[in-house]
Amino acid sequence: MSELAPGLASDPASDRASGLAAPGEALLERCLRLARAARAPGLAPAAAAATLAELEAALELACERAPPAQAVAAQITLDLAGYLTGWNEEAEALFGYSAAEAVGQHAFFLDADEADDPGLAELFLEQGGAEVAVLRRTRRGDTIRVAISVAAIELDDGEVGGMLVTMRPAPAPADAAGKTPAMARPALSESDKLHLHARIIEDSDQGVLITAADERIVSCNAAFSRITGYSADELIGRTPELLRSGVHDDEFRERVRASIAGDGSWRGEIIGKRKNGELFPQSVAISVVRDAAGAITHTFSLFSDISVHKDFEQRMQRMANYDSLTGLPNRSLFNHLVDQMLSEARRATEYGAVLVVEVDRIGAVADSLGHDAGARVLAEVGRRFRAALRDADILARLEGAKFGVALPFIEKREHAGLVAQKLLATLAAPIDAGGQQLRVNAHIGVAVYLEDSTDTASLMRYAEVAATRVDLNADERFLFYSEEMDQRAKDRIRLENELRAGLANGQLELHYQPKVSLRSGRIVGAEALIRWRHPERGMVRPDEFIPLAEETGLILEIGDWVLDEACRQIAVWRDAGVAMPPVAVNLSARQFDRKLPAFVQQALERHGVQPEQIMLEITESLLVGGADNVIAIMNELVAMGLALALDDFGTGYSSLAYLKKFPISTLKIDRAFVVGLPDEDNDCAIARAIVTMAQQLRQEIVAEGVETVEQMQFLRDLGCDQLQGWLFSPAVTAEAFALMLGEGKRLEVAR
User: Fold this and answer.
1) What is the pTM (predicted TM-score) of this model?
2) Using CA atoms, how far apart are residues 550 and 567, in angstroms rounded to an integer?
3) Distance of alpha carbon 750 from alpha carbon 636, whole angstroms
4) DSSP 90-108
5) Number of Cβ within a 10 Å radius of residue 725
6) CA-CA distance, 564 to 609, in Å (whole number)?
7) Which residue in 222, 220, 229, 228 sits closest to 298, CA to CA?
8) How far apart, in whole angstroms, are the C-alpha atoms of residue 711 and residue 606?
9) Which pLDDT tens digit goes with each residue over 593-623?
10) To 5 degrees, how large is the angle CA 380–CA 385–CA 391?
């Protein structure tokens, strides 16, 4: 062993086991001797080092054997009313209140809300000076468990003048398993607090950046390095300038500085720059640390990368404001953009226009080729329209096959017409719809501001009104709005509301027009025709409300009512003993779906009508394209025992080729080709061709709108089977028709 001071050589290990295992006084004497020896003059350095090592070992042993220090208890004094008159430093450390804050308050202010403990007076009376564990609340709001004892304070005259309350922290009671939950913990020491706060900052998901008064970075946490890509070594000593994105100008930075200097904080969103140059959005909260004089010593910033949130917000905003099919603004965003455009136009007294463009035949394309084909056509139409417009022009898909266009800053009204023509011209080339080359057209309504209106809602309404008034057979398929159109549109809205009310209130009725055989002159059938008996207008013609019903979708309800009412009336005639020939019922193309056979079957069963008593009339427009689903529905209806007639034949795309595909038993020659008979050569040729075609297909032929004997004779001689028209009878009520049958009324058809 190294040289020691004379007489002090010892083995610390053996001392621990024997010589030094002595009372505390002997251990302290040993330490004193070692300390004096270390200061002895002339002691060699090696000996001095060994002596100090021996002293250190002795001191460590002394510390181990030292009894725990007895903590000074918190003590408070109370007067007999329970108000605090004394409060020592230990009470301040335990509860957090200074003496100035506590003295004068009632002892109740320390009670915990959840505690059900006796008061101090009760404790004194029940327990005397014994300790009792109770719950109390600190200034920070923590609930702590304390051991409390109460003693009386006697005055000189022997009277009790108050109470002395002694308190110390108490452990929580043990549970059934003997474990003690930590109901409350003593306050952290300052060093523990600093360590805890440092760990919280370092482990936080938010980036933390601390700068000194000269804006030099002095600290950052791991999250900040992860967000920006810079390590702490790369940041310390530099300024936050290396994080600037260049998006925000100097004025913005000065506003942030002014806010920090004034209120001491700033919160907002900024664009930052990562080490790799990528720009990203971040939420930032900046605060300052001031010294005792109020000067800013440090600034600390909390950063959160909100790229994911911003991306989500942008996606949600796009979903709310843009059409997913075309990528164009939707109606909501279009209205907002037009509002802005109108505000600028009013200030500058400039003119512009709003166009509503309705693309034709999209419904037919979707029905015949599928929804995807219709979607491809609309997407291509949107692309062509966008390419034809100026960058400043606004294009939106409003709904379905309807587009909106806003033209800011046009010099005169006619320029909007030129744009309309340009848009229509883009549709001249065929559109590829999944292998099918399709051609579509459109019609356009135009409203001009500041001429027609100065608000968005009115302009949109006016343009839509104009679009509905476009003549689809005219060369120019666009129309400017006028006040007369608006009045007609209002009349149509009023008529629609009245029609809905009429359907609900039983104002609709069926009249029956007889069909007469051109061989015998007898009544061989009837066509059920709808009539509207308006309470104020009287009888409203079908050509006034049927197109409106088709446009608004009311035709579905009306069509269902017609079929059911016809079946009901047939049942009434049957019950009255009237031998009723088949009744033809018109179907709208909108009714012709997979649900139709089931609905017809239900109506027949509901009224006990046989299928052969009903004939269903359809129009040529339903057959164009020869969709397989249409043929399937027709076959199902025929299999039920129903007969199908093709109404208004010759007005569409009449073709022997497509007629062969459909299970049609009757062709009806439209009145348009009957009116000129027998004098108009063209009408005669068309009628002759239709009759010949039907005969080849072994189909029955009915001529509509026959009003003269000459027409009847010409059709009879051609080989036409039946006629209906005013020559024999107009459509009459159910009662009048039954009377006509009962009387055996006939048409004279003999040559």
Assistant:
1) 0.47
2) 23
3) 40
4) HHHHHH---HHHHTTSBGG
5) 21
6) 11
7) 220
8) 41
9) 889 999 999 999 999 999 999 999 988 777 6
10) 130
